[in-house]
Amino acid sequence: MPEKPLIHDRDAGIERLLEIMRRLRDPDTGCPWDIEQDFATIAPYTIEEAHEVADAIDRRAWNELKGELGDLLFQSVFHAQMADEAGHFTFQDVVRTMSDKMVARHPHVFGDESRDKSADQQTRDWEAIKAAERAGKAQRGALDGVALGLPALMRALKLQKRAARVGFDWGEIGPVLDKITEEAQELAEARDSKDADALEDEFGDLLFVIVNLGRHLGVDPEAALRRTNAKFTRRFETIEARLATQGKTPADSTLEEMDALWDAAKRGERR
């Protein structure tokens, strides 16, 4: 029996996906859209797919998660194919680099270090290894290597954690709360000044210190905001549904009516 072509062999694993990607980028027979892409144009899709993975996990949508993880894997394959074409590295180089990194960062699993340590100690050891890696890359500053492309809340959290590791941090939550009050006052003053740049600046300062509060409370700001977004969506959809039973839409209703329905939706969630 003749062997199946690789792209039609459903049991071929990652090699099948790599071949599909190579064919899509083939300058003579590939897909025109895929051929036109470069790292910069694909990067936004990579970020989007990572968020869709997080969304599926938040919703515990396990059947969807399989597909979302596949979409994210495809982004890595796409970038690696473009890198291969440019002579930078191959997909196998990506795999080798990650495998080497995981072995090096887990000496308590793959080396001769003891596993008899707490999760907190392992986290500190992990950060120490990463700091040594950054030093090897001539990244001397405490904030070096925090990616600019991260979502702003996530990057703020990482910047603050890095600064805290070298002692630039409040030791307790009280000063953080005081700082929130201070920044809120400065935001109000910027609003009154009608200075758009100052308003954006002060608003950013307030968000940054809110992230700091979350860090001190052990709350991930990105996860917390995703949760609140989902809650807002759920409650607003309840308002729309209840208005629809009256033959109305939000645009046909008063704020007082919608506030009352919002409160009823909150009470319903607490039962």
TrEMBL record:
Organism expressing this protein natively: Cribrihabitans marinus
EC number, as in UniProt: 3.6.1.8
Gene3D superfamilies: MazG-like
GO molecular-function term, one example from the UniProt record: ATP diphosphatase activity
Protein name: Nucleoside triphosphate pyrophosphohydrolase
Reaction equation(s) it catalyzes: ATP + H2O = AMP + diphosphate + H(+)
Any Gene Ontology biological process: dATP catabolic process
Family annotation (InterPro entries): MazG-like_dom, NTP-PPase_MazG-like_C, NTP-PPase_MazG-like_N, NTP_PyrPHydrolase_MazG
